[in-house]
Known about the structure:
It contains three helices and seven strands; from the N terminus they run βββαββαββα. The protein is of the alpha+beta class and about 130 residues long. It is globular and about 35 Å long. The mean pLDDT is about 85.
Amino acid sequence: MIYYHGTRAYLAAGDLIAAGYSSNYGHRKAAPWVYFAGTLEAAIWGAELARGEGRARIYIVEPTGAFIDDPNLTDQKFPGNPTLSYRSRDPLRVTGEVAEWQGHPPEQLQHMKDAIARLEAQGIFAID
Length: 128
């Protein structure tokens, strides 16, 4: 299976994406998990919604250890994990980058950003 990670960080093949660094989301606190997906669509959302100044990027990654379904999505939004979204405490190894991908229409992306902002205003942060 191919796995993807969406971010704004610049990475190269062989780099590790590890827990313990600033999250791409919310208050950017140190993330206890690294997140990835088995669908390009989920990774596109990850890249587009990531905070930071760099351009949105999608990397092809391989887990280096155990991983579980991402409960932020599978328990709350998509039972059965159709987005193939996962998280791990072990690093992900970057094996490549998806050079060409189509982002969401600006109005759809803004709608998602507005929904996240409403949740954050209520003190709800989806990523731990």
